[in-house]
Write a structure and sequence with these properties.
Layout lengths: L1 H18 L26 H12 L18 H10 L14 H7 L12 H12 L6
Amino acid sequence: MRHVRGLIPSLAAGALFLSACGGNTSQSSAPAEPASTPPATLTATYSSIQKNIFQPKCMNCHSSGTKSAGIDLTSYASLIQSAQTHGDPVVVPGDPKSSHLYMALDSHEMPPAPDQLSDVEIKTVGTWITQGAKEN
């Protein structure tokens, strides 16, 4: 019983560590936990995606202060700037399959648990890119 008491805090700490942004994302591409329910107000516009996806689920790692992987999702301008400096195209207007942003979301590589996106949220980002990734 003494070993079990010490094991529970260790497991909790390990789970917290693995869920942090920047953890090993090369494991299974399936979500570790059920994805969140998308907000009822989510539409395929930049402003809606910014408000409902980027701000609550991505900004801890991809803001102007952190720019994890060189990607800043703080504003449309910073997203486009990231696209020009990242190496791989972050967003290719009209082509989600060539867009690093969409492919990272669709493969569930990003964002890490517990912030993984629902299929509807991923499809909405893909639709926005397909429609030209406009600042709307």
